[in-house]
Amino acid sequence: MLGLIGASGTGKTTLTHGIVRLLGAHGVTPINLDDYLRYSRAERAARGLTDADPRATDLDRMAADLAALRAGQTIEKPIYNHKTGVPQGSERVAPTGLVIAYGALTLTPPVQPDLFDLTVYFDPAPELYRRWREERDVRQRGYTLDEVRMAWPARERDIQRYIAVQRPLADVVLRFLPGEMGYDLQMWLRRRALAFDVVSALADAGQGAAVQIQSVAADDDGLPATVINATSDPALDRLSEGLRSRLPVSGQVNASETLQGTHPTLTFAQTLIATLLLQRG
Fold first, then answer.
1. What's the domain range around 97?
2. For 191-211, how does the pLDDT look when each residue is reduced to its tens digit (9 = 90+)?
3. What is the DSSP string of 201-263?
4. Is the pTM here over 0.90, yes or no?
């Protein structure tokens, strides 16, 4: 089971869709944990709650459902309409192969981190994140730009209070940064991810100048880590293709294809995480 953690709009859904395409939709069960929001958007506003506040989410139900999925059981998962901002019934979900659970509070108690085989925290540069959040909320969530900007101080406060505190628990941190040719990427592999032989994996796939690897005694969370820095160089696409050709399962993307509509560093992150997860499995 793969757990993805990050504030709303940081790229969790996009990465999930890429992994589904890499591994095959029939072998992956994606679960949006932000569907466990208790209240409608209007009710949250009346209660003075942001979507990042744990009081707005049914954490007990979420934790119980994750434990059930881990045990191979079918769950009755809530559905939340994120465009209209209202709960909308439920659906039965049976775990098929890999479960990808993604949300803002994925590692918040009573959820136990050990439920997951691997956890990934999304930590884009602040200027990128704000732009991504504004674009997403206006285009897909029904907000006006003024509404997004008015809500920003409270959301940023609660992101630091309730979401950022989960980062030290994660095995991998993804950080997208502004780059000369688009987005640069920094990945921290720590905790359980340190067992992954990233040097050999990338060398076998044809590592080029687009990727640099170093070991650090303490990352920003004080943890020993392997740090991977990648730039949007043509060599990065070739490296992603090399990794993809070595995946033991086949999805909707062939080794000779690219993930259409994705940035080279995002494609690389998706492919490396899939490789890491399958090696652990």
1. 1-121
2. 999 999 888 888 877 766 779
3. HHHHHT--TTEEEEEES--TTS--EEEEEE---HHHHHHHHHHHHT-SS--S--TT---TT--
4. yes
